Recover the amino acids of this structure.
């Protein structure tokens, strides 16, 4: 009986041990990590009206949750498909990654340029003048695309003096009035996209610019050049150096350039531009500056070896003394 009970106990113990050993081992949870190494992949420029995808990524354990912020709006997910209207020249994209386990977060951003194929432009190069005819064209629109016009952000009202062409591609003023001044845009749309053009600021006034400074300069001497603009409407001023920056010591501060040329014989081209980009008006001035060698003082005449330089006063005294010596009686 004792042997039988001992056998049963051994079998029971073996069964319990086997059950314990056969239990699945639970792997410990990995520690939360990240987000690290955030980045936004996608093109540096987009075309208005064309869908473009951007991807936000980060090194994250477990997988991060992503949120996009663009122009005050939010979107979830690591992928963002963006279709811009074209009203601005650039756009700021911001992505935030959040680790759901640790709640740690990190953000990154990038600026994307916007290429807009639609633009409002005058049909001639003449500046708008009161009392004269003037025509604006919505370039980039086509016969199958609906076109709408706006002035200062409001739908444009037409009348007998302000007329649209049959397909709305052009806007014609029979005689400009001061009240016609403003910012004009056109909007094109088909079944899939809507694009707002780059606009045109219809304004009255002229822009003129000139460069003050010498036409010839000496190497090694500092010279000043000033870009002088006469703008009847707001304008910006900039210098351009299409043939390279001036050689030598050079500094630029707003409208003034200080230049100490280093190499005689060269010709430097200065170009100054005054413009109002919204009014699509620009004036430019150019100046070719020739660099001359700096005049040098003539070198002193060399003295023969072994000779002495005698001062005129001493030479005269010596000659008089010699004459007196020969005049004495012997």
């Amino acid at each position: 009986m004792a042997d039988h009970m001992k056998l049963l106990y051994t079998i029971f113990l073996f069964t319990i041990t086997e059950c314990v050993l056969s239990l699945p081992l639970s792997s410990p949870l990995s520690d939360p990590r990240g987000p690290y190494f955030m980045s936004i992949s996608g093109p540096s420029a987009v075309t208005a009206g064309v869908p473009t995808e951007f991807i936000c990524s980060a090194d994250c354990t477990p997988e991060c949750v992503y949120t996009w912020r663009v122009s005050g709006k939010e979107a979830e997910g690591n992928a963002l498909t963006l279709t811009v209207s074209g009203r601005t020249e650039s756009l700021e994209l911001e992505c935030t990654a959040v680790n759901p386990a640790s709640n740690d977060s990190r953000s990154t951003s990038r600026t994307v340029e916007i290429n807009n194929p639609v633009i409002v432009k005058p049909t001639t190069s003449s500046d708008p003048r009161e009392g004269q005819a003037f025509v604006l064209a919505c370039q980039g629109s086509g016969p199958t695309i609906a076109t709408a016009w706006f002035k200062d952000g409001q739908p444009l009202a037409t009348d007998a003096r302000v007329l649209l062409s049959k397909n709305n591609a052009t806007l014609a003023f029979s005689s400009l009035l001061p009240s016609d001044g403003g910012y004009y845009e056109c909007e094109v749309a088909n079944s899939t996209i809507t694009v707002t053009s780059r606009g045109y600021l219809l304004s009255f006034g002229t822009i003129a610019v000139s460069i003050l400074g010498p036409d010839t300069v000496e190497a090694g001497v500092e010279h000043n050049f000033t870009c002088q603009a006469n703008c009847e409407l707001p304008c910006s001023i900039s210098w351009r150096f299409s043939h390279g920056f001036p050689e030598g010591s050079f500094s630029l501060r707003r409208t003034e350039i200080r230049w100490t040329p280093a190499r005689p014989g060269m010709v430097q081209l200065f170009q100054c531009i005054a413009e109002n980009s919204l009014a699509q008006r620009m004036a430019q001035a150019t100046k070719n500056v020739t660099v001359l060698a700096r005049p040098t003082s003539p070198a002193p005449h060399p003295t023969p070896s072994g000779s002495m330089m005698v001062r005129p006063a001493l030479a005269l005294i010596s000659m008089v003394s010699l004459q007196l010596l020969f005049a004495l009686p012997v």
User: Anything to note?
Assistant: The first helix runs from residue 2 to 21. The helical segments are 2-21, 312-327. The chain has a mean pLDDT of 82. The CA atoms of residues 264 and 291 lie 5 Å apart.
